[in-house]
UniProtKB/TrEMBL annotation:
Gene3D superfamilies for the chain: 2.40.30.170, 2.40.420.20
Keywords for the protein's UniProt record, in alphabetical order: Transport
Highest rank taxon of the organism: Bacteria
Domain CusB-like barrel-sandwich hybrid: 186-306
Protein name: Efflux transporter periplasmic adaptor subunit
Domain CzcB-like C-terminal circularly permuted SH3-like: from-to ranges: 393-453
Region: Disordered, residue numbers: 47-103
Pfam family, one: CzcB_C
Family: Belongs to the membrane fusion protein (MFP) (TC 8.A.1) family.
Domain CusB-like beta-barrel: 311-385
């Protein structure tokens, strides 16, 4: 390498690093000065072409100089080279464009000093007079990996972490509403034509218990069935045979006469004028249609009573999360009306349909409601723990380069060499992501500054493509 080429290369590298040039003069140079091209005789005589700080700092002088503590600057001969990877000057092994003597590295091509996608097979200068930078064989890998110097790794903050087996706990959060348990709703209706004589002091919203009187009803069909039953159980011929009274008693039960009323007939041995109707379960009166004096047709609903001690939470799960939901998974439900209060349950049913407007699927959770504070149609938020409890191969989420259709990571091969590798991902949770394909346990991946590395690899790929095109 000639003195002019070496000096030009040094000047180009210094300019790229942002170091100011200072013209030589009799005054003392500043701490950040650089060398200009020396005479051709400098190489022949072995004289230094500039002087550098003895500690390797980016401080240069055209003339002998001293540090603030009195030490001499180090002379740099014409054959020396400069590297700013570790902020110090280094003298690499001699390089040449020819594959001559042993120990010499061959120059593969020259690239633009400003990083532009422009290469050359021979030495040249750019429009600003800067020499193109040689790229040696071995520095440009053919396996798609890139190599960073220790200085660049330290400056960019590259960190690696090994892929390891972990339990991924993914929580799916979704909104929903409270609904009544369909199995805990009862309807009070007449099975024969009847007349309501009296209604108890029960209104919509009242809480009733099983057996509590609701109303008194007169029904010709019920009175006829009661008289038949009474005749059967009081007859001297059939009273001693239980089988004879079973049919007439069953008729009363078919008319939905309460057990308490049938027991009263058996005890009093008389046919009552009216029958007292009672609540079939504990719960809240959701509907009351009974009015004193009204005539009721068969099938007419007079009361609707629901048990609120156990309710359903109907949660709308986004279609993309449906694959992670399974029956039996634990769920924590929070009511917006009661901050800080939590209700626990499990996924009981996954409804086999998708809402075409919202693209959600409905999931049912059964919740205990002993305080009766969860009301019908109340808004709630659910956290569904979808973790399986089994350890899977994972990496930190920051290690994944997600391009939408493809995901990749940078595998740290050691000695500054990084290999981009496509991976197949699974569940996410707790800052980690499952890797189903592309990595092995124990392989180190880059977890920080990978976007800077990706930009570096794209630049090198472009330069390599231009170089291959120029050689053809």
């Amino acid at each position: 390498m000639t003195s002019s080429v070496a000096a030009s290369l040094a000047a180009a590298l210094i300019a790229a690093a942002g170091i100011a040039f200072v013209v030589a003069g009799p005054q003392r140079p500043t701490a950040r000065t650089a060398a200009v091209i020396g005479p051709a005789a400098a190489e022949e005589s072995g004289a230094p072409i500039y002087y550098q700080d003895p500690d390797g700092k980016p401080s240069y002088s055209l003339v002998p100089n001293k540090t603030p503590d009195g030490r001499d600057f180090r002379p740099v001969p014409a054959g020396a080279d400069i590297s700013f990877d570790d902020n110090q000057a280094e003298t690499p092994p001699p390089a040449t464009a020819a594959a001559g003597g042993s120990g010499e590295r061959k120059i593969k091509y020259y690239r633009n000093p400003m990083g532009l996608p422009d290469t050359s097979l021979t030495p040249k200068k750019d429009s600003m007079g800067m020499d193109y930078i040689p790229v040696y064989e071995g520095d440009d890998s053919d396996d798609g990996s890139i190599k960073l110097s220790p200085g660049k790794i330290q400056r960019t903050g590259v960190k690696s972490e090994r892929a390891a087996m972990r339990v991924v706990r993914t929580v799916v959060r979704a909104p929903g509403t409270i609904a009544l348990d369909e199995r805990r709703i009862s309807v009070v209706a007449m099975r024969a034509e009847s007349f309501i004589l009296k209604v108890a002091d029960v209104t919509t919203g009242s809480h009733v218990v099983k057996g509590q009187p609701l109303m008194e009803v007169y029904s010709p069909s019920v009175s006829s069935a009661a008289a038949e039953y009474l005749t059967t159980i009081t007859s001297k011929t059939t009273s001693g045979d239980v089988q004879y009274g079973r049919g007439s008693r069953q008729r009363l039960m078919n008319l939905d006469v309460p057990d308490a009323a049938i027991s009263a007939i058996e005890k009093s041995r008389t046919v009552p004028t009216s029958i007292g109707w009672t609540s079939p379960r504990d719960g809240i009166v959701l509907e009351r249609n009974a009015i004193e004096g009204m005539r009721v047709e068969p099938g007419g609903v007079l009361f609707r009573i629901a048990d609120h001690s156990i309710v359903w939470a109907l949660i709308d799960i986004a279609e993309r999360d449906l694959g992670m939901i399974a029956k039996g998974q634990p769920v924590t439900v929070k009511a917006r009306s009661f901050p800080g209060r939590e209700f626990t349950g499990k996924v009981e049913v996954i409804y086999p349909e998708i809402n075409k407007e919202t693209r959600t699927a409905r999931v049912r959770i059964e919740l205990q409601n002993p305080d009766l504070i969860l009301l019908h149609d109340m808004y709630v938020d659910a956290d569904i723990d979808t973790g399986s409890g089994e350890a899977v191969l994972t990496v930190p989420e920051s290690a994944v380069m997600d391009a939408g259709a493809r995901q990749a990571v940078f595998v740290d091969k050691g000695q500054g060499r990084l290999e981009p590798r496509e991976v197949k991902l699974g569940h996410r949770g707790g800052g980690f992501v499952e890797v189903r394909q592309g990595l092995a346990e124990g392989e180190a991946v880059v977890v920080s500054a990978n976007f800077l590395i990706d930009a570096e690899s794209n630049l090198k790929a472009a330069l390599k493509g231009f170089a291959e095109g120029a050689q053809q």
